[in-house]
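Exercise 7 asks you to align residues with tokens for two separate proteins.
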Amino acid sequence: MADLSGKVAVITGAASGIGLAGVETFVEAGAKVIAADIQDEKGRALETRFGTDTVRYIHCDVLDLAELEALMEGAVSHFGKIDVVWNNAGSGGTPADIEELDEEGYDKTMDLLLKQVFFGTKYAVAHMKDSGGSIINTSSISALEAGWAPITYSVAKIGVAHFSRIAAAQVAKYKIRVNAILPGFIATSIFGASLGMSREVADQMAEMLAQQGGSMQPAGRTGKGKDIAEMAAFLASDASEFITGSQFTVDGGITVGPRHSWDESAGGPVLEALGITPEQAEQMAEAMKAQQE
């Protein structure tokens, strides 16, 4: 496990999903954490669970830049400094495809998923310039290829990944590192919430995904929030001090290639084009072999 002893971290979207796993993992690694979210009941529960000497909850709507700036100032006020900022807050955004997309849905999604990462980083740098630090931004495998998320979400997430590289270059002079994590299929409430489900129902859907989604990927199980949190903890730690401007795909191998590349029972593109199942192909091969004998 990463060693975060003595570090102060700010995590947005901290009350559930990947962010919650981040709070748990960072505390276990020795950090003090400012947990930011708009889910006040869950946020206050974190203070009760860990104690306010270790975790402080701050209500922060990352769409409100004044609140985002105040979040960083609050971290310094509570714990005296900021060593790590994890810009993690987000949602599925507008589900509209390019033909149905409207300006309002586009703006809200881009503001939530990309604009707040720009300004979360900006406000973090103001408090890290003298001592250095690590900034981590949550992107997505939807930044790599089509089919994983709606178009606006996907474009915002590739923006996050590339922003992290450019920002890393600009703030390197302050010994501040900036990296992006690209999570794969992680069982969180974001999927249900993007479908308009209540938070409670979305949480239940996340549990179902955790139990049933393993067959989709080479790792054989659905990703957990802790899988992403462990990568973030590494990037927050001094063990990663030579790493900046990089993108880390944490996806159980789901983007290594089409299913047939890792699942022998799946048919390849040629068989699919011919309408032949793997079983039928095997039978044909056996028949041809028998004829040759």
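Second protein for Exercise 7:
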Amino acid sequence: MGAALIELAGIERVFQLGDSEVHALRRLDLTIAAGEYVAVMGPSGSGKSTLLNLLGLLDRPNAGTYQLAGRDVTTLSAEEQARVRSERIGFVFQSFHLVPRLTAAENVALPMILAGIAPAQRAERVAQTLRDYGLENRADHRPNQLSGGQRQRVAIARATIMQPAVILADEPTGNLDRATGEEVMRLLETLNGRGVTLIVVTHDGALGARARRQLLMEDGALQHDSAPPEATTSTCVLPT
């Protein structure tokens, strides 16, 4: 197993709903090594999406620490978190989250534009990425001109254009038929085979069983972890 990429210690996330508090995550400790393939499972309201949002730096915990490649990212400013998110984390969502008015090529280029990468370099990398995902003939199509599978491939291309260390996939096959969903999962698993850490949130037991490690969430706590107890404690260092 590789070095520890993600280390959560004592993570708490509490939401205030009227007069009551909802403990979405409770004293969560979790280590995920670089290159792992992990499925996060559990019923609705178990904390899966809250965990994914925290891992993706879209939300902050009320207590605890989150280290990404040895760097405590819970203490970073919003701007610093955005930079880490842009460079290190790729997102794949059930509903694709493509920008409707942009073409496939423009959607894929978006993270590079936000990162300030020069237009010539962007164009070259986007063209190569579209070829890699079999989308070169769809470069100028907008999302409403693409099939569900093509839209998800565009979303995965966008998620990987910055060569992230980790891909967070939230029900990535939820809006796809079985054959197309299988194609999308093979694509994500190929990326994992090349060393990208893959974390999939799913309600689908069959989909979760594909992962080499399953985490079962319930009431904001980790109820079961299929990883062996001798998980790595070594750490890799995130470039600044």
